[in-house]
C-alpha cells in the first residue's frame, strides 16, 4: 500500500542509508543524489536555525529538473546549547556518551523540500532521556562500531536504544528523518 503517490521519484539529497530506508518504509520512491555542502555551524548560530539551514542547503545544492522534488534533511543532537556532531574518534565518542549519560537532550531534525523554485522547511524537535551509562558500557558500545558515524555518537535504532529511558517526540526524527513531517511536505509539494 502506498500512502504517498508520486509521479516521479523524489531526489534524496543525502547519502544516509537510514533516510533512504525510512523513505522506503513509507513507500516513497527516490533516487539518491547526496549534496556536498559545508556542514559547519555559523558563529553563534542557534541549533534550530543551523539544522533548518543545512536541510535547505542540501535541497538547493542538488541539481534537478524544475518539476522534480528534492528532499534535504539534517539532524543534530543538542545538549544544552551545544551541538554534538559525529564523533571524531574514540575519545570524542566516549566523551559524548559520558555527557549524555543520565541527562535529557534534544534531537532536532529538519526536512526541506524544493521544487521548481518553491521551498518548504519544517523542524521536528524530540527530547531523549538517557539512563546512566557506565564507562564499561560506553567502551563496549563504541567497540561495536555503531556510534562512529552517528550524530551524538549513538543510534536509537540499534544497540544505542538500550540507553534511552524516555523519548518524547519522533522516533524516526531521532533516526534522521521525521516521517510525519516528511509526508506532509511531500503532499504539500503538489507532486502527485
Q: Give the topology string: H per helix, E per strand.
A: EHEHEEHEEHEHH
Taken from the alpha-carbon principal axes, the silhouette is: elongated
According to DSSP, the number of beta strands is: 7
User: What structural class is derived from the secondary structure elements?
Assistant: alpha/beta
Q: Give the amount of beta strand, in percent.
A: 25-35%
The whole-angstrom Rg is 17 Å
Number of helices: 6
Domain module tally? 1
Q: So what's the CATH class? A: Alpha Beta
Report on the structure:
By secondary structure, the protein is an alpha/beta fold. The chain has a single domain, classed as Maf protein (Alpha-Beta Complex), CATH 3.90.950.10. The protein is built from 6 helices and 7 strands; from the N terminus they run E-H-E-H-E-E-H-E-E-H-E-H-H. It has helices at 17-25, 47-61, 90-100, 135-143, 171-175, 179-188; strands at residues 10-12, 30-32, 70-79, 82-84, 104-115, 118-130, 164-168. Strands 1, 2, 3, 4, 5, 6 and 7 form a 7-stranded mixed beta sheet that branches. A hairpin with a 2-residue loop joins strand 5 (104-115) and strand 6 (118-130). Helix 3 (90-100) packs across helix 4. The chain is elongated. The two termini are 16 Å apart. The model has no long low-confidence stretch (mean pLDDT 92).
Amino acid at each position: 500500500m502506498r500512502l504517498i503517490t508520486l509521479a516521479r521519484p523524489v531526489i534524496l539529497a543525502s547519502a544516509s542509508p537510514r533516510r533512504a530506508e525510512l523513505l522506503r518504509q513509507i513507500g516513497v520512491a527516490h533516487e539518491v543524489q547526496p549534496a556536498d555542502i559545508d556542514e559547519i555551524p555559523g558563529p553563534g548560530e542557534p541549533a534550530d536555525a543551523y539544522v533548518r539551514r543545512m536541510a535547505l542547503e542540501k535541497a538547493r545544492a542538488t541539481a534537478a529538473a524544475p518539476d522534480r522534488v528534492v528532499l534535504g534533511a539534517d539532524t543534530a543532537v543538542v545538549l544544552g546549547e551545544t551541538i554534538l556532531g559525529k564523533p571524531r574518534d574514540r575519545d570524542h565518542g566516549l566523551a559524548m556518551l559520558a555527557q549524555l549519560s543520565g541527562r535529557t537532550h534534544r534531537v532536532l531534525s529538519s526536512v526541506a523540500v524544493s521544487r521548481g523554485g518553491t521551498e518548504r522547511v519544517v523542524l521536528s524537535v524530540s527530547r531523549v532521556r538517557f539512563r546512566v551509562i557506565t564507562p564499561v558500557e560506553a567502551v563496549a558500545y563504541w567497540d561495536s562500531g555503531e556510534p562512529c558515524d552517528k550524530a551524538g555518537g549513538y543510534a536509537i535504532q540499534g544497540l544505542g536504544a538500550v540507553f534511552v529511558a524516555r523519548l518524547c517526540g519522533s522516533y524516526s526524527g531521532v533516526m534522521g528523518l521525521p516521517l510525519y513531517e516528511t509526508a506532509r511536505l511531500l503532499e504539500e509539494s503538489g507532486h502527485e
